[in-house]
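Can't paste images in this forum, so I'm doing it all in text. The chain is below; anyone willing to post the predicted structure tokens underneath?
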Amino acid sequence: MVLIMKTAQKLLVFWLIIMFLVAFTSSLVYLVAQQTVRLGANEQPMQLAMDTEINLEKGQSAVQAIPANNVDISKSLSPFVMVFDINKNLLTTSGMIGSSKPTYPKGILDSIDKNGEDRVTWQPQQGLRYATVAIKFTGGYIVAGRSLSETEKLIDEIGKVVLLAWFACTIFSVFALIVIYIFIIKVFKTRQKIS
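Text version of the structure:
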């Protein structure tokens, strides 16, 4: 009986180590996937900001340099561009929130003076989140952004898949642990009968 208890303790310790590794791996997989998807959302805003900078440096006005179509960013998934002057006043925008021009945090524009660019998640109001890239150009600042609603849905789905995989692994490992324990008991009883 003592041998069975010692074996059960060893099995339990081994199982706990495996479950720790499974939980760690699952967390790492989720973190890498989440960061990859979220950082990928900056690609389109960065391209728009750089294209706008090129247009401005060619001599186009702020209105001419940004996309012609105004979009309601509270409803649309379309990207948008905002151009600010050197004093951080909004010159023009291709994105509106309803009928109002959005108010981008001046603190982010301040940080661009030191770093040259900034990439942040901007939440102008509850339920509206945007991947934004802000850069400095000769005459001021450019901010380009896009909605994170679809990106965050994808991240949620990834989280559900990773959680489901972790849960399935836990259930199967518990089942395997029970089967191994039963097998050990049968082997021990068989040996006792032979002895």
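Strands lie at 71-72, 80-85, 90-93, 95-96, 117-125, 128-137, 140-147. The first strand starts at residue 71 and ends at 72.
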